[in-house]
User: Which sequence fits this backbone?
């Protein structure tokens, strides 16, 4: 029997597979991970503290920079929280625009995950295909909001712009195109034996564990928990749409893959239904005072971001700035299960498990 | 084995497709009409109302006004106007609040520079930045 020694290994903070500046200190014995300690905070900017000195409109660009892969949902959660406190009713047209933007963002975010996850595991070409499609979405959102990632599109009481001419047609063209590509992805990797053997039965956790760790999004649904805030606590106009909540069974990396890919399909369905229901034109802003002041009190709202449940808590003393603001950032909560999952795993599974959690470091560090 | 071959078929099918990449920076990347790029400033339109300074989330704009040279005119005119592009996040809020559209966005986005000092843009520079000016602000 060969005698092995424990070794301390630093993964990151500048490591391509950690998708940002995330450091993982692992103790390995041969190939087996004994202990993993995530070190976070390299991208911490103190959004919540900064927000205390900013007016509500000024905070919106800051939320763009938390989950920078799906900034529309971040925009939404802040505006939704302030609107809830002020009791603002949004025009339908503005809500439909928001839903369109958010669902496009969800697809773009899952595409990045799909591409980079496969890249981490060792397949290079899916990354290129996924980014090709994502680029189309980014261009669409760029036309709509004027930014490629940091949209700053929503405002308290509505949205900044109406859709530009021909934009709806381009989104409608995109849906069948994306569906065709999605079928291609399943051909490309869905049946690939190498990929399947890398993800099946890797990083398994039970429903109880997932709930104890407060996981949300695809990380929770892969264990079979049927929980999607769009369905079970409908916000915006989501109760008007017919879509399925994709759940897994076993709670392994393969189920997480299936959940996310399924969600792209469901998002496409929502986009299609939006066009069926949407009024041809309407107001993009509700009547809101020029200086936005949330009434004294507190509110917590939560919505379903691509990564899970994103929440915004505002405590206001009636001024134009919040007294205290807190974001429940799903990546941060989802990441906490990582040390448990990695314990006793083979070194080669580290990246499969970390990638499967789907973290965005801007969101983890806030 | 079947799965691998199916994947290979997809790759081969995509080989025939047209290239979708840009030959940047040899060819410029077209940006849509609403794109938020480096601001253009019109000194003659500015009424020194300070709204852009107040709304800026990163406090990157600083301006000063002076008395109008014509003693009959009571209003102020702009004297200096600086934007620090080290911290400007191009969020569009300054152009949104400007009542006279004295500050507007352009489609230009190339700000990379060898020196941090170059990122400090003054009134003259912002006035001369007059290509690809956005129409709707």
Assistant:
């Amino acid at each position: 029997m060969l005698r092995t020694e424990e070794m301390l290994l630093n993964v990151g903070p500048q490591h391509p597979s950690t998708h940002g500046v995330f450091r993982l200190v692992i103790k390995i014995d041969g190939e087996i991970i004994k202990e993993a300690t995530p070190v976070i905070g390299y991208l911490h900017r103190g959004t919540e503290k900064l927000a205390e000195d900013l007016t509500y409109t000024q905070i919106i660009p800051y939320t763009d920079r938390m989950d920078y892969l799906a900034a529309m949902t971040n925009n939404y959660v802040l505006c939704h929280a302030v609107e809830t406190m002020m009791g603002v009713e949004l025009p339908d047209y503005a809500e439909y625009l928001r839903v369109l933007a958010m669902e496009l963002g969800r697809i773009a975010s899952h595409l990045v995950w799909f591409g980079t996850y496969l890249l981490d595991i060792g397949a290079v070409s899916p990354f290129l295909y996924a980014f090709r499609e994502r680029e189309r979405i980014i261009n669409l959102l760029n036309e709509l909001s004027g930014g490629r990632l940091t949209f700053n599109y929503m405002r308290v009481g509505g949205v900044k712009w109406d859709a530009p001419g021909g934009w709806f047609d381009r989104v409608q063209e995109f849906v069948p195109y994306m569906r065709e590509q999605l079928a291609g992805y399943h051909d490309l990797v869905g049946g690939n034996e190498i990929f399947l053997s890398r993800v099946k039965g890797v990083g398994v956790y039970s429903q109880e564990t997932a709930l104890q760790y407060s996981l949300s999004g695809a990380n929770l649904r892969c264990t079979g928990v049927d929980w999607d805030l769009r369905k079970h606590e409908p916000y915006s106009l989501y109760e008007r749409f017919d879509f399925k909540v994709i759940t897994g069974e076993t709670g392994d990396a393969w189920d997480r893959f299936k959940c996310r890919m399924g969600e792209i399909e469901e998002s496409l369905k929502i986009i299609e239904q939006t066009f069926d229901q949407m009024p041809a034109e309407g107001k993009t802003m509700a009547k809101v005072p020029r200086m936005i002041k949330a009434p004294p009190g507190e509110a917590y709202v939560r919505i379903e971001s691509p990564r899970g449940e994103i929440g915004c808590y505002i405590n206001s003393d009636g001024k134009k700035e919040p007294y205290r603001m807190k974001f429940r950032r799903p990546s941060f909560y989802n990441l906490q299960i990582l040390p448990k999952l990695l314990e006793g795993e083979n070194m080669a599974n580290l990246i499969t498990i970390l990638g499967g959690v789907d973290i965005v470091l801007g969101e983890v560090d806030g | 084995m079947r799965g691998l071959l199916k994947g290979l078929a997809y790759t081969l099918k995509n080989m025939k497709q047209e290239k979708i990449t840009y030959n940047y920076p040899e060819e410029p990347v077209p940006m849509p009409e609403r794109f938020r790029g480096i601001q253009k400033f019109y000194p003659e339109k500015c009424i020194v109302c300070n709204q852009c300074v107040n709304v800026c989330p990163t406090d990157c704009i600083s301006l000063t006004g002076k008395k109008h040279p014509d003693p009959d005119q009571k209003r102020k005119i702009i004297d200096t106007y600086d934007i620090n592009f080290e911290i400007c996040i191009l969020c569009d809020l300054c152009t949104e609040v400007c009542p006279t559209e004295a500050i507007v966005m352009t489609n230009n986005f190339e700000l990379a520079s060898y020196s941090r000092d170059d990122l400090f843009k003054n009134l003259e520079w912002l006035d001369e930045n007059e290509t690809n000016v956005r129409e709707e602000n």
